[in-house]
Amino acid sequence: MNRVKKGALFLVTLSFLLGLTSCGNKINEETKEIKIGVTLYKGNDTFINDIRKEIEALVKNKEEAEVCKITIDFVDANGSVINQGNQIDRFISREYDVICVNLVDRTAAATIIDKAKDADIPLVFFNREPVEEDMNRWNKLYYVGAQAEQSARMQGNIVIKAFETDKSAVDKNGDGKLQYVILEGELGHQDAAIRTEYCVKSVMERGFELERLADESANWQSDQGNEKMTNWIKEFGNSIEVVFSNNDEMALGAVYALKTAQVPKEHWPVVVGVDGINEALEAVKDGTMEGTVLSDTQVQATNIVNIAYALAIGQSLEEVSPIRNGKYVLVPHKEITKENIDDFIKRPKIKEIK
Ligand code: GAL
Ligand code: CA
Questions:
Q1: Residue 125, ligand 1, Cβ within 6 A
Q2: 148-294 belongs to CATH 3.40.50.2300
Q3: Which residue lies with its CA nearest to atom 10 of ligand 1?
Q4: How would you write 110-177 as a 3-class SS string?
Q5: 63 pLDDT band (50/70/90 cuts)?
Q6: Strand, coil or helix: what is 331?
Q7: What is the mean pLDDT of residues 106-126?
Q8: Of 141, 197, 323, 350, whose CB has the highest number of CB atoms within 10 Å?
């Protein structure tokens, strides 16, 4: 036996002894099935659905590139903590390798964590961040999300840019202040609280004056955004100069309200969202929204899949993801305005991930 063959044999034997499979390292031909369970807080949330689609595409690619079979099962908790608890129980009793959790109630992760810990099944939370105390309950907990403060600062920057480009088009009553309303996301959601605080703060920090007209939660939803905005148009008439929306769905709801109220172009406020969902990109393109901030579903999904996969095959996480404090991946955002919109509308689909 030559040295190369001896080496190969040694590696195969070693991989057996260490319990490694062919997945990921292709050392032997034996295939293993990896099972990943994903529970979504609400399957009909547009942004969450975009993450889901990206995850599915990535898993498909990964499966083709690797030797092993990956089963990924998505379940929809439909806004119910009880449903989500049951879904986690089922994933645990069916011995899934990893469970990815988009929490219904981000302040109540303890029960889920304790069950997973008992069964020694790692958890990858995403989009709805557990509180720090819960994240410290075990060392096999991870969180993939976005940099909320940055998204708000970028919204602020889009508003400032619009103002600096054409002052009278934004400060319509010419009083030197920007009269604004805020459509907030779900109360208690980390992104909603942080985006609400910093969109305004970031503009003020740069020396601009703002005046708040109204600020209400529309729970991430376009119909509620439409309803709030319809009321505000009735109440404040044409004095709304800026609409900060914690996400695109609600911003689109506001745009719908402005259209329904037949607000003319010269009174149309600057509307900014976050997420970068398709319909919002169209709205930026046609000018009904000034801009949005991309919360990159492709990058978030890539991290979720890479971390889940690495955990399932026992690969080191440092190799696959830029993890902070051993637990967190916070993906950066990008500003989207009319200037660069075509780069995003024509964004190529995922090809391959390593
Ligand atoms: C936010 C996102 C919202 C909504 C929410 C759900 O990050 O901007 O559109 O999807 O997550 O948790
Ligand atoms: Ca003004």
A1: no
A2: yes
A3: 47
A4: HHHHHHHHHHCCCEEEECCCCCHHHHCCCCCEEEEEECHHHHHHHHHHHHHHHHHHCHHHHCCCCCCE
A5: confident
A6: strand
A7: 97
A8: 141
Ligand 1 binding pocket includes 104 (Cβ within 6 Å): no
Inform me whether the pLDDT recorded for 179 exceeds 50.
Answer: yes
Q: How far from the centroid of its chain's Cα atoms is residue 117's Cα?
A: 25
Of the listed ligands, the closest to the CA of 172 is: 2
- For the chain, give the longest Cα–Cα distance: 87
Residue 62's Cβ-side half-sphere holds a number of Cα atoms within 13 Å equal to: 28
Q: At residue 16, does pLDDT exceed 50?
A: no
- Classify domain 12-139+297-331 by CATH architecture: 3-Layer(aba) Sandwich (3.40)
Is 128 near ligand 1, meaning CB less than 6 Å away? yes
CA angle 168/170/175 to nearest 5° reads 65
**Predicted confidence (pLDDT) per residue in 211-266, tens digit:** 999 999 999 999 999 999 999 999 999 999 999 999 999 999 999 999 999 999 99
CA of 190 to the centre of ligand 1 (A): 10
